[in-house]
UniProtKB/TrEMBL annotation:
The keyword Ribonucleoprotein does not apply. Residues 35-319 form the Peptidase M14 domain. This is M14 family metallocarboxypeptidase. GO terms for molecular function: metallocarboxypeptidase activity; zinc ion binding. CDD domains: M14_REP34-like. InterPro entries: Peptidase_M14. The keyword Protease applies. Belongs to the peptidase M14 family.
Length: 319
């Protein structure tokens, strides 16, 4: 049986006291650039853009008022958009530190976008949080989690820009795949930081070793989720539940699948009325998975999801 380890107090703020302006500024001062959005995301995107794709700069993430950089935000859209086809949204890098979400989306664009754009309408946002990507961070510079702020009048500019892009270019979705990871740093850094910021005790959960999916409690579609798990199992191992039958504290719904109330929580995968939605959770810290496997698992999830929709044509008319 796994026991929750004892964690020292987070080094910013006072225990059980929510952060104010001073603590948030202290946190921001400790963040630093560790990799390049331009070199690792934008350059490969431009180099591998298929002829069937249109590059859209859907906004600019401007943090210059905080002494930081500004970042162009990119989406990739099917050139031949046909209203009668199913429309598919792929989002990556909502949490910038979840590397395979970004690179899995880029790999899909480079390797599979051209083929699937002949059958479905595609919109891909490969890196929604470029500052988070560069600083290997879950939050944005305002100490906000973009994946809790896909809401009306969002205070997170990453979320607001992504929602505006989707509303403009793909307002009627059938399928949305949101690419994420669950990392060991969720327990060592990001979970404790969130608890300190909010003035609450840290709710520790064991990090599952393996891939899993997060469906939507309102739109669970278990056959769809099962098809994705079966496809990814050919690439990497699927996470098993803990001794309580849970993954990260949530009851297992079926092999490798838990559900969240995505709209209620303000999650990226809850921003639309798409019938089919799923959030990937890759485990990059596993001794049994390489970075290439993690990226491939993201790619396979996307292609398996599109294949499922194409095998069930009646779903294309669903709303």
């Amino acid at each position: 049986m796994s026991a929750s380890p004892i964690h020292p107090a987070y080094p910013i703020g006072q225990p059980l006291q929510a952060w104010g302006v001073v603590e948030r500024q202290q946190w921001l001062s400790q963040q630093c650039v560790q990799r390049s959005y331009q070199a690792e995301v934008v350059a490969p995107l431009l180099a591998n853009l298929p002829a069937q794709a249109q590059l859209i700069e859907y906004g600019t993430l401007d943090y210059t008022q905080l002494g930081l950089s500004s970042y162009p935000l990119y989406a990739v859209k099917s050139c031949q958009w046909q209203p009668e086809r199913p429309t598919v949204l792929v989002t990556g890098g909502v949490h910038g530190y979840e590397t395979s979400g970004v690179h899995g989306a880029l790999q899909f664009i480079a390797e599979a976008f051209a083929v699937y754009s002949e059958q479905v309408n595609l919109l891909v946002l490969p890196c929604i949080s470029p500052w988070g990507y560069e600083t290997i961070n879950r939050w944005n510079p305002l100490a906000l989690d973009p994946n809790r702020h896909f809401i009306a009048a969002s205070p997170a500019p990453e979320s607001a820009a992504a929602m505006a892009c989707v509303a403009q270019y793909a307002p009627e979705l059938l399928l949305h795949i949101d690419l994420h990871e669950t990392t060991d740093t969720d327990n060592s850094e990001f979970g404790p930081a969130k608890a300190a910021r909010d003035g609450v005790a840290f709710d520790w959960h064991a990090i599952p070793d393996g891939f899993y999916l997060v469906g939507d409690t309102e739109r669970p579609e278990p056959d769809f989720q099962q098809a994705l798990i079966q496809a990814v199992a050919q690439v990497t191992h699927i996470a098993l539940p803990d001794e309580h039958g849970c993954i990260i504290g949530e009851p297992l719904q079926q092999h490798g699948v838990i559900n969240y109330a995505k709209r209620e929580l303000g999650l990226c995968a809850g921003m639309s009325a798409a019938r089919y939605v799923s959030t990937t959770e890759v485990y990059p810290d596993s001794p049994h998975a390489s970075p290439a496997q993690c990226n491939r698992a993201q790619l396979v999830t996307i292609t398996a999801a599109i294949d499922y929709v194409l095998r069930h044509p009646a779903s294309a008319s669903a709303t």
